[in-house]
Design brief:
By secondary structure, the protein is α+β, with helices and mostly antiparallel strands. Helices cover 25% and strands 33% of the residues.
Length: 119
């Protein structure tokens, strides 16, 4: 994975912000995984980060589609009021250079005031 941004937002707020920014750039978004929704079905799930069943850890996986139809996978992972946005880049799953650039351009100029850009 290549980390794009670190934002001082909760994960849910960061996902809403990223989705709005990407859609404003003409990209289509599909939410494919939400950790808190998956955890809701489990009664005794202890957080590995906080060590309790009650935590604010969240992971959301978004599929980002451009014009070519093949999606890029954007992962938002957050806890304690901070979220990391990363793009999955493996030999098996590599976004096209055009889509990667579109994602980066959509997020960078609209980044919240409190963020760290990773390049």
């Amino acid at each position: 994975m290549s980390q794009l941004l670190t934002i001082e937002y909760t994960c849910d707020k960061a996902v809403r912000w990223a989705t709005e920014s990407l859609e404003s750039a003409g990209l289509r978004i599909a939410n494919s995984f939400d950790l808190q929704s998956a955890r809701a079905a489990l009664s005794h799930c202890t957080c590995p980060h906080h060590g309790t069943a009650v935590c604010d850890c969240q992971m959301v996986v978004l599929l980002v589609y451009g014009a070519d139809g093949s999606p890029a996978t954007l992962v938002a992972h957050g806890h304690d009021g901070q979220t990391w946005l990363s793009l999955v880049e493996t030999p098996e799953q590599r976004p096209s250079p055009q889509l990667k650039e579109s994602i980066q351009l959509a997020l960078k100029p609209h980044a919240p005031k409190r963020f760290t850009l990773h390049e």
